[in-house]
Design brief:
This protein has four helices and ten strands. It is of the alpha/beta class. The protein has a single domain, classed as Dihydrofolate Reductase, subunit A (3-Layer(aba) Sandwich), CATH 3.40.430.10. It has an eight-stranded mixed β-sheet. It has a two-stranded antiparallel sheet with strand order 2-8. A hairpin with a 5-residue loop joins β9 (about 150-160) and β10 (about 165-170).
Length: about 170
């Protein structure tokens, strides 16, 4: 069964982005780029929610252009102009189907609302975050209220030279 990983970069106070979706506070470095390059070697599928897609579409190109199959989960979008990205209205059904198929890791990009439904369905196996040493005070939250507690086991904790901390947790059954 394929592994599903939810993650991204966040502020210490658990925001993905500012309220206007900007991420000007992210601290990119050669070290972070190397970690991302290594992570994407083991990924062949990316799933994102509508908001993440709309923000990312402004910045492109999508990983689908690099051999990663991309999906957008939305109940409101009717079509997507990029023919390499598939639209799905039910994230839980999509991830259940993809997990049972052959392939590499599935990456859930951003989208705390999307992740909430997948956590509650027991479909996320791992979470990984690059925590930046900044308190935004407000913004797009990393996690939304869930109907149950999710227990985790620390797999890796790595301090980067720029002050960021990369954490990887396994989701316990």
């Amino acid at each position: 069964m394929r592994k599903v990983t939810f993650g991204g970069a966040n502020s210490l106070d658990n925001y993905f982005a500012r309220k206007d979706h900007s991420v000007d506070w992210l601290m990119w470095s050669k070290e972070v780029n190397a970690l991302m390059k290594d992570f994407w070697k083991d990924v062949d599928t990316m799933i994102m929610g509508r908001t993440t897609y709309e923000v990312a579409a402004k910045n492109g190109p999508f990983p689908s252009q690099a051999g990663v199959k991309s999906y957008v989960c939305s109940r409101t979008l009717k079509n997507i102009p990029d023919k390499d990205i598939e639209l799905a209205d039910d994230a839980v059904s999509l991830v259940k189907r993809l997990k049972s198929e052959e392939g590499k890791r599935i990456c859930i990009m951003g989208g705390g609302r999307l992740a909430k439904s997948l956590f509650e369905a027991g479909l996320i196996d791992e979470i990984g975050f690059n925590i930046h040493p900044v308190l935004l005070g407000s913004g797009i939250p990393l996690f939304y209220e869930m109907d149950r507690q999710i227990n985790l086991e620390l797999q890796e904790c790595k301090q980067l030279k720029n002050g960021c901390v990369v954490l990887t947790y396994r989701v316990l059954p």
